[in-house]
Each structure stands twice: as structure tokens, then as C-alpha cells.
Amino acid sequence: xxxxxxxxxxxxxxxxxxxxxxxxxxxxxxxxxxxxxxxxxxxxxxxxxxxxxxxxxxxxxxxxxxxxxxxxxxxxxxxxxxxxxxxxxxxxxxxxxxxxxxxxxxxxxxxxxxxxxxxxxxxxxxxxxxxxxxxxxxxxxxxxxxxxxxxxxxxxxxxxxxxxxxxxxxxxxxxxxxxxxxxxxxxxxxxxxxxxxxxxxxxxxxxxxxxxxxxxxxxxxxxxxxxxxxxxxxxxxxxxxxxxxxxxxxxxxxxxxxxxxxxxxxxxxxxxxxxxxxxxxxxxxxxxxxxxxxxxxxxxxxxxxxxxxxxxxxxxxxxxxxxxxxxxxxxxxxxxxxxxxxxxxxxxxxxxxxxxxxxxxxxxxxxxxxxxxxxxxxxxxxxxxxxxxxxxxxxxxxxxxxxxxxxxxxxxxxxxxxxxxxxxxxxxxxxxxx
Length: 434
Ligand SMILES: [Zn+2]
What we know:
It is a single chain. It is built from 14 helices and 19 strands. Helix 5 links the parallel strand 10 and strand 11 (186-188). The chain folds into 2 domains: 3-63 and 380-432, Urease, subunit C, domain 1; 66-372, Metal-dependent hydrolases (TIM Barrel), CATH 3.20.20.140. The chain is globular and about 65 Å long. It has 434 residues and is of the alpha/beta class. Zinc ion (ZN) binds at residues 162-163, 189, 241-242.
């Protein structure tokens, strides 16, 4: 296979993945063949010897339900110099994802039926399922509620003003009431802007040393607390995006214990990096919320282990070189993550025995789909084929220049990782790089 083919998905009407270790929801691990016809699982076990079609040797590989990233910025329409639906979905594929949900802070904003339909149409033929998230407020103006029901009818899987918080409590209340009726969550970017002001990194000893303006952890905590109260009052499904602080983890844990319908995500970077990554004024470690302290990082890891945090999502936020190659204060917030997430989590969490592969499947495949009300992939005859194939300990070095994303803004460039996706199968679509 030449390198061009490695970047493209193909169609396969008849496919057999042979001898992989299957790790799914609940069921015991098993080593088995999976044979698939026209995108549907025909059997699991020992493939019939007269099976005709493409056979792929998966011995030594792990096959899991396809990964899903519920927090992606695809930037199209409006910012195609940063990313497009095609390039972002390609990056997801290369990172081992079979599905993603994309945020509506584009230009125009995804805040009506026609825009939801546009995203779905653009992504229709891609191997990665692309599910649009509709805005909570028209044009992200924070004032007027969008036609949430109309967008849900067109395929919006959730609602969010991400990039910004839903500042007005009254608007959040209304949104959560609709959300409850529609059965689709509001995803909030929790930030009290009067506390974060023009800060660029975590507020603390490190920001003082660097002489940079800080964003205090309470900027997030205050908003999480408010959101939890509104969710409790309305009984609407709330999902908290990119949790970065120990305080948020504690608040969410307490709310879950008393029955609030809240789910939450954190991102690989908050689990493995701290504010120290900003030293040397590294703009590739600048994002919102910012990287926090070791104490916060440990609390997030604990939250992942005990189920307080349901999901690991990337908050893939592509920017151009120019957006980032500038002074720290003026550099754009955000990093990309689709092509490094799996390797980082395998290397730093699974191989370090902080979580096991089954928990990875929950946090990166099943829980995000549960939260968004999507069908769950699995290993059962009659189900649509939807898998990620991993080489669990394959050593590789992150080289941002090889990314299929248009963007290069990653703090993980040059990292030595162990474990990556070598293939994804989604229906009749297959991408293989093994
Ligand atoms: Zn956000």
C-alpha cells in the first residue's frame, strides 16, 4: 500500500477480521474472527472456511467498538484555513474514531435546521459518522434560544454554545427544559468570564513566575456549581465539557450522588499535562480551560477512575500556524487532539494501569454515544460493523507534519507513544494502516 492509500478509506462488501482480541461492553474478552457482509456482522467465532472476501490478520491486535469523540471543532463553514469537515473527519479516522460530534461555533453558527443539514450532507459519505451539535443561542449571542426542536428533528444530537459559556441562568434554564423534552443534552463550556477576564493560563505561582495573566480555577468551578443547580431544578440533561479542575470534579461527584442528571468529560491533555507545559511561553499548551496544577490533574484521574467523569473527549481545536506562532498573550486558545488521543491514553493511562482497556472503551466509545442517544456498537450478529482495531503497544513518535488534520497545534509533537489505531471499520467502510 502506498502512503496515499493509507490516508483513504475504502469500501469492502465482504470482510473478515481474523483472530483479534475483542473487548466490548460487559462481555468477556474473546479471541475470535468477525466476518462481515454489506456492513453487517454475520458471525463471531471461527470464520467459515469457504468465506470469500477480504481477510485481515488481526492476531496480536485488540478490536473494540469504534471510538467516538463528542467534542470536536471542524471549523467549517467559515474557518476552512484551520480545518474542514473532510480534513477533520480524516483526522478522526486516522486517530481510530468512527464517529464524532462537532461544535457549532462556526461562521455562520450552526443554529438552525439548514445548517444542521449542511453539516450532515457534507459528511454523508465519510467513513466517520459526523453528528452536528446545534447552538443554544442564536448566533451564539447568549440571549435568544435557537429552535432546538427543529434542529433535533434535523439530526442535532446536543446543544452547546461551546467556546463560550451560557452566561444567562435564565437561558440555561429554558434550554435545559427543552433539552429534557427532546432527550438531548445541553453541553456547557463552564467559565465565568468575569473571573477569567483576559487570562491566558492557570492562575497561580506559575503564571506569576512567567508574568502572564491567569485564569483562576474558580472561573470554572463557579459556573459548574451554577449549572448543576439549574440542572437539578429543571431535571434537564446537562453535560459539562472539558472539566479541568479538582473543584469541578468534587461538585459533579456530589451532584451525581444526589441524582442530578449530569454527565461530564475531560480531555487527554488535562489528564497528562499540567500548567508546567506552558513554560517557555509555549502557545501549543494554551487552551481554555487552561492546563491546571498537579493536584487538579490527580483529581481528574480519580474522577475518570470512579466514574464521576464519563467521557474522554479531545476538544480538537484546530488553528493555523499564524494563530499560534505569536506572543503568548495574543495566541489563539486551543489544541488539536484527534490523532494523538488514543496513543496518549493507551500510553499514559492504560499501560500505567490507571484504567484498563475496558474503561477506555466506556469513556471513548460507549458513554459518549449513550449521552447523545446514539446506537451502541458491539460484537453481535446482525449489528452494523463499527470497530476500531488497535495495535496496543506499537511504538511510534508523534509527528504533526504527518497529521491528516490541516492543523499542527499539538503539545504532543515529538512524544514517544505506545499503541495506536491500525484500522477502523464502519459499515462497508474500512481504513487500514496496519
Ligand atoms: Zn469549550
